[in-house]
């Protein structure tokens, strides 16, 4: 793979899981395939909701496209806004089996890897730009311990280990309205607003070399 020569962004979403018939991440992501943002072409990939296999597919896509930016997107049913993940931890602790029936409990994402990786993104700039666009957003300090965290950790490890000239991180999004109607009281966000949010975040991540210092933490 030639590093840093292709002006490409890789966006990934997931297949449905947990009894859902759709996954809002792929519903939004696939609509951006071939679009041009900040001088970069968007390429997309649907990942399986499976431990390990998802990382194999992600790594192959990174090798294929040599992207300058990788944003992996996943469903976070119950969350009300766009969640920019700040950190991924080296643990799998699956509350439910993945789509292949695997349910790892208290195992490392990658044996011998560091305890955690921080997102290689200007997360505060991305947050600020989303809010300027009047899109509900926040910084999240946990990507969970399911396949989403697994993919975020694996992505950042791959970038680090291969010394790629590439930024990367993970975004969680709410249910779509058609999903939320089956979950009493659950918040949702429309696909057009999610797509708008992805465009804002991609542009922000590609155009800001350093991050802002604004308060976006939590007390619990």
UniProtKB/TrEMBL annotation:
Catalytic activity: Release of an N-terminal pyroglutamyl group from a polypeptide, the second amino acid generally not being Pro
Lyase found in the keyword field: no
Role, per record: Removes 5-oxoproline from various penultimate amino acid residues except L-proline.
Family annotation (Pfam families): Peptidase_C15
Gene Ontology cellular-component annotations: cytosol
Catalytic site: 85, 148, 172
Top enzyme category: hydrolase
NCBIfam families membership: PRK13197.1, pyro_pdase
Record note on quaternary structure: Homotetramer.
Main location: cytoplasm
Protein name: Pyrrolidone-carboxylate peptidase
The protein's Enzyme Commission number: 3.4.19.3
Species name: Pseudoalteromonas rubra
Sequence similarity: Belongs to the peptidase C15 family.
Keywords (A to Z) from UniProt: Cytoplasm, Hydrolase, Protease, Thiol protease
Location within or outside the cell: Cytoplasm
Gene3D superfamilies recorded: Peptidase C15, pyroglutamyl peptidase I-like
GO molecular function, one term: pyroglutamyl-peptidase activity
Any single GO BP term: proteolysis
Domain of life: Bacteria
